[in-house]
Amino acid sequence: MEKRVRTRVAPSPTGDPHVGTAYIALFNIGFSASHGGDFILRIEDTDRTRYTEGSEQMIFDSLKWLGLDYSEGPDVGGDYGPYRQSERFDIYGKYAKELVEKGGAYYCFCDHERLENLRERQKAMGKAPGYDGHCRSLSKEEIDAKIAAGVPYVIRLKMPYEGETIIHDRLRGDIVFENSKIDDQVLLKADGYPTYHLANIVDDHLMGITHVIRAEEWIPSTPKHIQLYKAFGWEAPEFIHMPLLRNDDRTKISKRKNPVSLIWYKEEGYLKEGLINFLGLMGYSYGDNQEIFSLEDFKKNFNIDKVSLGGPVFDLVKLGWVNNQQMKLKNLDELTRLTIPFFVKEGYLKDENVSEKEFEALKKIVEIEREGAKTLKELAQNSKFFFADEFTLPELREDMDKKERKSVERLLGSLEDEIGKKSVKTFINKLENWSKDEFSSDEAKELLHSLLDEIEGGPGKVYMPLRAVLTGQTKGADLYNILYVIGKERALKRIKNTISKYNIEL
Questions:
Q1: How much is the mean pLDDT over the chain?
Q2: Which pTM was predicted?
Q3: Which of 304, 157, 156, 164 is nearest to 238 (CA)?
Q4: Residue 402 in contact with residue 412, Cβ under 8 Å?
Q5: Average pLDDT of the segment spanning 417-439
Q6: Mean pLDDT of 151-162
C-alpha cells in the first residue's frame, strides 16, 4: 500500500511569525490536500538563545487567521507528539547514541581552542572551514576513558569520505554533492541539546513525514540529512525545495527591504484571502491565466509540478492589487465588520460597538471605498469625507508643488466665481425641497445632474464649489456618494457651516 501523505511546517519561535512560514505552509497544505493527506505543525524551539516569549502563540494565531489549518500540532495534539522539540530532548539523546553504536556517528572531544586554531590554519591555507575528523579514529578505550573523566563532548555525523550524495528533487532534478566536501556535522551539542539536523530528521521520521517541502536555502543541508537517514537505516522522505521569496533586487526577502511579519500584514488591513491568494501566486501558475482564487480553490487545483524556480518577487504593489480584488469579492457585511477596528483607529468611531443604524451607514462607506482601497486600513483612511461634518478649507502654502497649488487655487476660486455661487445657492434650495433625509445612489446622481442642467456651467464650475462646501477638499469620493452616505440634513449642515465660517456671499 502507498503511504499516506504527511507534510509539515516547522517554524522556530524566535520573533514575529514570518511571511515565509505562511508561504511554505500554504504549499505543504496544497500538496497534502491534493493527495488526501495530513498537514502538521511542529515547533522547533531547541535554540533557546533566540527563543522569544509569546512567539509560539503568535505562530498559532497567525496560521489560524490565514486559514492554514493543521491536523496535528502543539495546541491541537495528535498521535505523533509531543510537537515541540523542547519536549523531546530525551528522544534526541537516545538516537544520537544509537547512531554512534551503529557506526554512523562518533564522539568528538575537541575543545573550543583546538577548533579555533583549526579554523585559523584552514583560513591561512585558503581552505574551506570544516572539522578535520580528529576524533573519528579514537579507540573505544580512549572514548570510555574520556567520558569517565568527564571530558565534554559532542556527537558528530560520520560523513563518507568518498562518493556522492544525490538529492532527487521533484522540481530541480538530481542535485549532486561530493561527500568529501561535506563537514562532519555536530548532531548533539556538549550541553545535550540537539542541533537542527539531528532533531529535524528524527522528528520527521518518527512523525511519518513523507514529503519535506521547504525553502531552497536548505539544499546545502540536505546531503547531511540524506546521510543521516542512511546511517539510521530509515527510508528518507521526498525532498522538494521551493524557490525563495525575493525582494525587488532579487535578494532574499528580509525585513530591511520588505515587511516580513505576518502580524504587520494583519495590522495593515490585508485580508487573509488577499495574502493567501498572493502567496499562492509566488512561483506558481494556478492555470488559465487566473490570478484570483480562494484557499479552497488552491487546494483543489494544486499541482506541485506547476511551481517554477525563477525566484518569485514579493511585490507589495501586486499584493495590494490582489487584496483589492478579494475585498471586492468579500461579503459586504463581513467586510464592514472587519473594517470597523480601522475606523476606530482613525478616530471616526468611539469603539467597535456600533448600532444597527451606524452599521448600515458604514456599509455604504465600505461599499464605495472598497473599489479603490488596497487594504482595510487604507479604506478607513480614505473615508474621512464621510465622517467630518466640520472642516477647514485648504490654504495656499509656499511649500506646495505646482499641481497642488493649482488644485487649491481652483477650489477656492470656485467659491468666488458667479457660476460657483449660483451652483451652491441652487443646490441648497434643491436640498431643502428634497422630501426625505436620505438619497439612494441613483437619486443623488439625478439631483446633481439636474443641477448641472439648470446652471449650464459645465461639471467643473458647477461641482467644484459643491465639493468645497461639502468636504473642504480638492478631491476625494464622488459627490453623489457623499450625498448617498451623509443624507440631506448633514449635507445642509456642512454647507451652511462653511458659508458662515468663511463669510461666503451667495
A1: 94
A2: 0.91
A3: 304
A4: no
A5: 94
A6: 96
Q: Which of 374, 314, 306, 378 is nearest to 345 (CA)?
A: 378
Q: Active-site residue 377, yes or no?
A: no
Asked if omega into 237 is within 30° of 0 (cis), the reply is no
Q: 6-22, pLDDT tens digit by residue?
A: 999 999 999 899 999 99
Q: How crowded is residue 125: how many other Cβ atoms within 10 Å of its Cβ?
A: 7
CB-CB contact of 227 with 165 (8 Å): yes
The burial class, CB within 10 Å (0-12 / 13-18 / 19+), for 149 is: exposed
pLDDT band at 490 (very low <50, low <70, confident <90, very high): very high
Give the pLDDT of residue 1: 64
What phi and psi, each to the nearest 5 degrees, are found at residue 40?
-125, 145
For 252, the 3-state DSSP assignment is strand
What is the average per-residue pLDDT within 367-385? 96
| Backbone φ, ψ for residue 110 (5° rounding) | -65, 130
The residues that bridge with 242 in the sheet, in sequence order, are 215
Of these residues, 255, 300, 406, 496, which one is catalytic? 255
All three cell numbers of 449: 445632474
Question: Mean pLDDT over residues 331-341, rounded?
Answer: 98
pLDDT at 250: 85
- List of residues 6+ apart from 415 with CB closer than 8 A: 421, 424, 465, 468, 469, 502, 504
Query: And the C-alpha cell for 113?
Result: 581552542
Report long-range pairs for 194-198 (Cβ below 8 Å, ≥24 apart).
194/46, 194/85, 194/89, 194/92, 194/93, 194/96, 195/46, 196/44, 196/46, 196/47, 196/221, 197/157, 197/221, 197/224, 197/225, 197/228, 198/92, 198/95, 198/96, 198/228
Q: What is the pLDDT of residue 456?
A: 82
Question: Which residue shows C-alpha cell 525545495?
Answer: 241
Contact assessment for residue 14 and residue 52, using Cβ atoms and an 8 Å cutoff: yes
N-terminal to C-terminal alpha carbon distance within the chain:
87
Assess contact for 212 and 42: CB atoms under 8 A.
no
What is the three-state SS of 54-100?
CHHHHHHHHHHHCCCCCCEECCCECCCCCCEHHHCHHHHHHHHHHHH
Residue 501 dihedral angles phi and psi, to the nearest 5°: -65, -35
Helices (H) and strands (E) counted in the chain, each on its own, are 20, 9
